[in-house]
Amino acid sequence: RDDAAGSPMSPARKGPPPPPDPDHGRWEGRSVARRFVSPDGMIVLVGKKAEDNDVLSLKLGAPNDFWFHVASESGSHVVVRNPDNLDRLPRETAQFAAALAAGYSKARHGGRVAVHMSRCGNVTKPRGLPPGKVMLHGYDTIKVAPLRGEDLDPA
């Protein structure tokens, strides 16, 4: 029998894509986010590029997860996983996530940067908007100094 399954010309994998892994920022088998752990032990995901931001905010993020984005600039979407359905984020986690949103944005060289905080359930994407652009329905604003992964102590 002539079976081409092992040949280099056949697709590497058949069947449906692997299930999403929101806690590790994976969608259809690929990483769409950098993963950090907040001072309070919560998972913080930072989008890598515009298309990844859409997946992170609209597909991986649960409606009750917390969402961050720098105000008035382009930058990464940041999602804090909220498996315990907390009403409010611990203060240190909110500051940490907001600082990462500022650090992974065009405002990263600023002093204190305004960052919007909301829930993934308040983030929508009207038809026709380019990758990474979303509409936000209700938010709070906090000011933080930018932070990037390379600024953190290795764990």
Distance between the termini: 53 Å
Write down the Rg. 18 Å
| Structural class estimated from helices and strands | alpha+beta
- Helical segment tally? 2
Strand order across the biggest sheet?
3-4-6-5-7-10
Q: Proportion of β residues? A: 15-25%
Q: What do these coordinates show?
A:
With 155 residues, the chain is of the alpha+beta class. Helix content is 15%, strand content 25%. The chain has two helices and ten strands; from the N terminus they run ββββαββαββββ. A six-stranded antiparallel sheet has the order 3-4-6-5-7-10. A two-stranded antiparallel sheet has the order 1-2. Strands 8-9 form a two-stranded antiparallel ribbon. Strand 3 and strand 4 form a beta hairpin. It starts with 25 loop residues before the first strand and ends in an 11-residue tail after the last strand.
